[in-house]
Amino acid sequence: MAITAGVDIGSTASKAVLLIDREPAAQIIGPSSTNPKRTAREIYEKALAAAGVKAGDVAYIVGTGYGRTQVEFAVKNISEITCHGRGAHFLVPSVRTVIDVGGQDTKAICVDSKGNLLDFAMNDKCAAGTGRFLEAMSRSMEVSIEDMETYYFEEGDPCTITSMCSVFAESEVINLINDGVPLPRIMKGLLLSLAVRVSSLTQRLGVVEDIVMTGGVAKNRGVLDAIEKKLKIAMKRFNGADPQLAGALGAALIAADFAEGTELGVERS
User: Fold this and answer.
1) Could you write out the DSSP letters of every residue in the chain?
2) Percent share of the chain, pLDDT over 70
3) Angle between helices 183-205 and 221-231 (to 10 degrees)
């Protein structure tokens, strides 16, 4: 029995996945903190407890994500780009393009038939089109992230959000609210604005089907719908699996590769 683990320390959320013979035995999500070393240890220990195994039973651990170098107990740390590709492929074997909207960056990832990284494009220079963008808009509108999705699907034509900068976009939103524009119209405009940035990045890489979206933002059906409208392609779903866990899952799968000596072709950070 081979037990491996992946620990994904993101900018806003941290995740851990424990595999037994390449099948998920424990999957944990928690908030990131200003102490990523402690966060990594805590999230990993929760996964161990959930699976009912001891740390000494784990054959290999891979750290990934924004704070991957802070996973001190990991044997290797691997780029989240590679890990999201592997995790997405495990959940949807037909996937060739992965869109990962993270807390502070957005990535479009192209993988081969085995889930190995072929190419990627990344936006890490601007908060627009990221989870941070949604959080900022949520505060400005005094609407929860969950309610954003509800408003998006209500009746009303979308407003046009013209700014390509999250700071100026927030000012536009405040002005629209003060002008009495209905929230559903503003929300449609906001999510379509985010979708423009994400679809532009994906098209720059080259759109190859099948496509999936990973990360916490992928849980928002409004965002998924807006991106599909801009790409004019229906994305695949994970059929009950949590898209936020794709990076940690991919890390655990790569850990299994190392444990079994089949890690050739893995891109290391």
Assistant:
1) --EEEEEEE-SSEEEEEEEETTEEEEEEEEE--S-HHHHHHHHHHHHHHHHT--GGG--EEEEESTTGGG-TT-SEE--HHHHHHHHHHHH-TT--EEEEE-SS-EEEEEE-TTS-EEEEEEE-S-STTSHHHHHHHHHHHT--HHHHHHHHTSSSPPPP---SSHHHHHHHHHHHHHTT--HHHHHHHHHHHHHHHHHHHHHHH---SSEEEESGGGG-HHHHHHHHHHHTSPPP--TTS-GGGHHHHHHHHHHHHHHHT--TTPPP-
2) 95
3) 50
| pLDDT of 30 above 70 | yes
Residue-range definition of the domain harbouring residue 5 = 1-92+240-269
Q: Which residues contact 157 (CB under 8 A, 6 or more apart)?
A: 185, 188
Q: Alpha-carbon distance 166 to 152, whole Å? A: 19
Which tens digits make up the pLDDT trace of 216-241?
999 999 999 999 999 999 999 998 89
How many folded domains does the chain comprise? 2
The closest of 227, 226, 220, 221 to 202, measured between CA atoms, is 227
pTM for the structure as a whole: 0.92
Whichever domain contains 108, its CATH number is 3.30.420.40
**Co-location of 62 and 102 in the same domain:** no
Q: How far is Cα 254 from Cα 246, in angstroms, rounded to an integer? A: 12
Q: What is d(CA 85, CA 211) in angstroms, rounded to the nearest whole number?
A: 11
Q: How far apart are CA 137 and CA 125, in angstroms?
A: 18
